[in-house]
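Changelog note: in this version the structure field was regenerated for every chain. One regenerated record is shown below for reference.
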Amino acid sequence: MSDLKDRVALVIGGAAGMGLASARALAALGAAVIIADRDGAGAEHAAEAVTAAGGEARAFAVDASSPAQL
């Protein structure tokens, strides 16, 4: 992957597992990361972890299976 500085990455399901790993990797490459997950508290913890590691992240509680929330 290339440098992602000045880019924004949206990770749906980013509170844990592969989504969180993706968010961390994207942030390490310089992207500002939006972490969206049904688990709002988990998304917040994930964003805090990414930020603590030196990245930029924000969390949103979103149920991507609900068209009304998209």
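Spot check on this record: The chain has a mean pLDDT of 95. DSSP finds two helices and three strands in the chain.
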